[in-house]
Amino acid sequence: MNAETVDILYRLAECNESRDRDINLLIEDMKQKAVEYESDGLFLKEFFMEDLNLSLSSLSKESMSYLNNLVDVALVLETKDTSLASFIPAINGLTSDLSKAQSKNKELELELSTLQRKLTSALVLEKRLQDDVVKTEKFLIEERKTADRRIQTMEFLMKKSEDIKGEIKSAKDQLSASGLDASLTHQSLVTLSEKLADVKNQSVPLQKKIESYLDLTPNPSLARVKIEEAKRELEALEAEFSTKLDMTALSVTLPTKRPFV
What we know:
This protein has helices at residues 3-51, 61-77, 84-177, 186-214, 220-251. The protein is mostly helical. Helix 4 (186-214) packs antiparallel against helix 5 (220-251). The longest helix has 94 residues, at 84-177. Residues 91-125 form a coiled coil.
């Protein structure tokens, strides 16, 4: 029940109360007129019987019928007497009142029909809104369940993240306790590999130089010395890189990963 429905019902109640008041006023007016007509009838009766020296017993049955009809018409038309001059304006006035009453009745019927249509539309809208509210409540319940599941998943992932961080810290502590050189980390090894490649590139001219020494004949002792120095320099670079790789393979012992639940 919304505000529009209440307003329509209130207007219907006002129309009914207004019509009831009009009917009650009409009834009271008719009662008052009946008393007045009864008084006028008694007056006419006395007039006919005393002034005209007529009595009901002296009239024929047909005359009595006419007289009664005339009196009834005068009562209905609310005239002061039974003359034609009184009947014609009364009939015209009654016709006008009847036309106004019919017009007013049509207006009330039209207004009532309009209010009924509005009431029907309001009730249909209210039912639709109630259905929408039910659907929205169901949707919100499902969305709340989905949100709860996502929150639980997020909390679980955050907990696993903290666990993994702890495992990483523990692994770092174990590596540090095992005496692993910081230079043996992955990034350091990559850098060292790049340096080795650069050394190899730099050794190419040296190898060519050695080869040129091999072709020398005047002083073989000096050439052999130069060749041996170059070989030792190259072997030292390769040995340094190999040693660090071997140390990494022998020293690094990562903790066993726990399965992700």
